[in-house]
Design a protein that fits this description.
seven-stranded mixed beta sheet; Rossmann fold; 13 helices
């Protein structure tokens, strides 16, 4: 059995790109760990703790994740302005990347990780914290000598098709389909494809655990509300497969993506 560590930027990110993989890995007897760079808060942590971290632990319980860890940073936000750090901790984008990588590497060594899940070079859709996760994840994998680094992504053409598919559901994804063609990863770069439709119900329930995001304001909250309310078969159709780029593989592309579990067995 293997230990799979998933490194993410914010609470709720663990579900959307890797939730099915984590649920399947746990169900098959592998140890799974989620590490987030930020606690999802833009301001100070309240006396009772970060609400989104509590929701993350509930999401992790649903997915069968054995451990949750936080590197100690605040959310950097997504947009033109990078706000000043809150008084109690730095934003992830202002943190020393080498220090962040060493903190993550210490967890990877402690867990004797076989696989690290991180993000592709675009950080998916380009969020600054996601791009930094890609950079820090790569360095931490080197420091800890993790045998396999798989970077979560979507084939760009799939992202475009999904955007068009959800138009009748009135999900305000915030990107024009043509914009998405330049995000995520080209299909020829994909090395691993995971069928997680069997775990779609668990993935949807884990997403619902992030209540402050689901019932918050703004476009992202509207998207999440729609996703947790659609029938499970529809959710499985939309988010029932997960894709990765193997950053430890030879540069020659594979014509047929293999399953991540071919790598961890």
């Amino acid at each position: 059995m293997a230990t799979v560590v998933a490194f993410h930027a914010h609470p709720d990110d663990e579900v959307l790109l890797t939730g099915g993989t984590l649920a399947r890995a746990a169900a098959e007897g592998h140890r799974t760990v989620v590490v987030v760079a930020t606690d999802g808060l833009m301001g100070e942590v309240p006396d009772g703790g970060a609400p989104r971290m509590k929701e993350l632990r509930e999401s992790a319980r649903v997915l069968g994740v054995a451990r949750v860890a936080h590197l100690g940073y605040a959310d950097s936000g997504h947009g033109a302005v990078l706000y000043p750090d809150p008084p109690d901790r730095p934003r992830f984008m202002r943190a020393d990347p080498a220090e962040a990588a060493e903190t993550l590497a210490a967890i990877l060594r402690e867990e004797d990780a076989d696989v690290l899940l991180s993000y592709d070079g675009n950080g998916g859709y380009g969020h600054r914290d996601h791009v930094r996760v890609h950079e820090v994840g790569r360095r931490a994998a080197e420091l800890a000598r993790v045998p396999r680094l798989l970077e979560a992504t979507l084939p760009s053409d799939v992202a475009v098709r999904l955007a068009r598919l959800v138009r009748p559901l009135r999900i305000p994804i915030g990107f024009d389909p043509d914009e998405l063609s330049g995000m995520f990863s080209p299909r020829e770069a994909i090395t691993h494809r995971v069928d997680v439709r069997r775990y779609a119900g668990r993935k949807q329930a884990a997403l619902a655990a992030h209540r402050s995001e689901v019932y918050g304001k703004g476009r992202a909250a509207a998207v999440m509300r729609t996703l947790v309310r659609v029938p499970a078969p529809v959710f499985g159709l939309l988010l029932g497969r997960e894709w990765y780029v193997d950053a430890t593989a030879p540069s020659a592309p594979r014509t047929v993506p293999c399953d991540i579990f071919d790598a961890v067995r």
